[in-house]
Amino acid sequence: MNVRVRYAPSPTGFQHVGGLRTALFSYLFAKARGGKFYLRLEDTDQSRYNAEAEADLYESLRWAGITWDEGPDVGGPYGPYVQSKRLELYKQYARQLVEAGHAYECYCTPARLDALRQEQEKNKQPLGYDRHCARLGDSERSVLKARAAYDDREPVVRFHQTSEGDTTVEDELLGSISKANSDLPVDPVLLKSDGFPTYHLAHVVDDHLMETSHVLRAQEWLPSAPLHVQLFQAFGWQVPRYVHLPLILGQDGQKLSKRHGSTSVRQFREDGYTAEGLVNYLALLGWSYDDSREFFSLKELEQVFSLNKLSKSPAVFDYKKVEHFNGHAIRQLTIQELKALLKPELTNFSDAELDGYLPLVQERLKFLKDAREALGFVHRAPSTWVREDFVPKKLDEAAAIAILEAALPLLVGVETRDDETNEAHFRARGEELGYKLGDMMQPLRVAICGGKVSPPMFGILRLLGTAEVTKRVRAALAFLKS
RNA sequence: GCCUCCUUCGUCUAGUGGUUAGGACAGUGGAUUUUCAUUCCACCAACACGGGUUCGAUCCCCGUAGGAGGUACCA
Asked: Is A27 (CB) below 7 Å from strand B?
């Protein structure tokens, strides 16, 4: 089978992590099966269209490492890949359906539809179209058509849907799902009065014309899947294989939304997540490999991804766990890769400085953006201190002063020795004075970095150099003695 | 309301007609360590409930409950 899979978002807002997961699974499935992955823009709702969203879509997917063989920006043999540029096509196919008796024009005004709905609500009847325009005789129809034309209103095209029988959707994940046709929405609109198709028509026409083999989409589409099957059948087309993916929820069990935290890919990126970390986490939300392996690169996922390891149940998005995967991903980076990612963040660092300092902080970073703060001391000597910070446990301020004074001679030429040698010197001097290495280092750390937490001190001493560290220790001594 | 889907530790999940029900995150306690972090070790913690089928059910069937999604000229 020729595998062709697509990701078809609506450009209504910034790319959502849920969408990214759908795109990721679609992409991985295509890759694992040696097929094609393509992008299609479903911009059929003019009122919700957002121009920024399109650029954000490409940016977010590229950032994640997902590439597409065909799409709005790169073209391809089945284009155009933007639905607003395919309007004639949808009209033509809608007409075809009307001529075959599978669809009809509806002239009902929004006002009539509103009144109908209110009436149904009042009487606690099931909501839905009353098929008014399906029952029109020829003369009635031409009158209504003429009136609509006079009002400058375009009719909509509705699917002529049967209420008898059942429709079965074969889902690769969920199995056979049957639904009574009487439970389907009554004669849904296929072509809107603005000339745009609804999702239903656009999905069926495009996935047929673009020869989509598998449709991976969120489970919120499951209820309308039988309708889509009916549409394919009305056209006499082959139904693609469906895979309805489980939803991603927030901590409270509701569909993941902004109030749960970051939801846009862009936000995760700005918050200092790596693409590798986010992708690794997302891959494991609703999919698993086996009972133990959990770390995967995109390339590895492309090899091992398969539909039969998908989960059927919805998954709660765990921000703590993404953090964990992100930390791991950062630690997996080479220094050169980390440098490339952090350069925009650490603009005041030279290449040589980055090469020196990054190994010191790499395993301490939970987020990329943490680097700026973690290395703040490099170009900024502490200007204020907290006295108590200098004092190691069980010692007093006098001891802290004594330690700093004892450290001064040891700092001379620090950069000419390796870290082990410097450590041995401090350890030995500490023993003479009756202090543990930890006691020796704390006042120094505070003097040089400004606080009780810092990257490893011997690396810092070596990189900062004798002159700078001596200056900082002297300043700290002056502060303590003042 | 109606329709559809789902149900293993708090969370993500593995798994089997007979297992001490496995891993990961989080949490707790330790070890290592110049702080922090990393790393390592240990602990805590689950088969929603009720009926069947069966020698035996977490696993198969049926109900119940709970959760979610859908019910638009939005996707």
From this structure: no
> Is any atom of nucleic acid chain B found less than 7 Å from the CB of residue A280?
no
CA-wise closest residue to A220 among A199, A191, A193, A192:
A199
Task: For A221-275, write each residue's pLDDT tens digit.
Answer: 999 999 999 999 999 999 999 999 999 999 888 888 888 888 999 999 999 999 9
Query: Which nucleotides in chain B lie less than 7 Å from some protein C-beta?
Result: 1-8, 10-15, 22-26, 34-39, 67-75
Residue-level pLDDT at A35? 98
Domain that holds residue A67: 4-87+198-247
**Domains of chain A: total:** 4
- Would A318 be classed as within a structural domain? no
Do the domain assignments include residue A297?
no
The CA–C1' separation of A293 and B15, in angstroms, is: 15
A175 and A30 inside one domain: no
Q: Which residues of chain A have pLDDT under 50?
A: none
CA angle A475, A422, A470 (to 5 degrees): 15
Question: What amino acid positions of A are annotated as catalytic residues?
Answer: 258
> CA of A162 and C1' of B63: distance in angstroms?
32
Distance CA A114, CA A122 (A): 12
CATH number for the domain spanning A220: value is: 3.40.50.620
At A414 the pLDDT is: 96
Residue A346 has which token pair? Answer: 């650490």
Residue A163: its pLDDT value, please?
A: 86
Same domain for A414 and A338, yes or no, is no
Cα distances (angstroms) measured from residue A478 to each of A439, A471, A472, A473, A475: 20, 11, 10, 9, 5
Residue where the block lists tokens 């004798």: A466
A114 and A146 in a single domain? The answer is yes
Co-location of A81 and A203 in the same domain: yes
pLDDT tens digits along A327-348: 999 999 999 999 999 999 999 9
- A44 and A183 housed in the same domain: no
Residue A109 neighbours by CB distance under 10 Å: 14
Domain contains A73: yes
Q: Which of A181, A214, A247 is the last residue of a domain?
A: A247
Residues 343-402 (A) near nucleic chain B, CB < 7 A: 363-364
Residues 57-86 of A with CB under 7 A from strand B: none
Instruction: Write down the ipTM of this complex.
Output: 0.96
User: In the β-sheet with A156-159, what is the strand arrangement from edge to edge?
Assistant: A103-106, A156-159, A189-191
Residue A294 beta carbon within 7 A of nucleic strand B: yes
Q: Which nucleotide is nearest to A323 (CA to C1')?
A: B25
In the 8-state DSSP scheme, what is residue A63?
Answer: H
Q: Which of residues 424-453 of A touch strand B (CB under 7 A)?
A: 436-438, 441-442, 445, 452-453
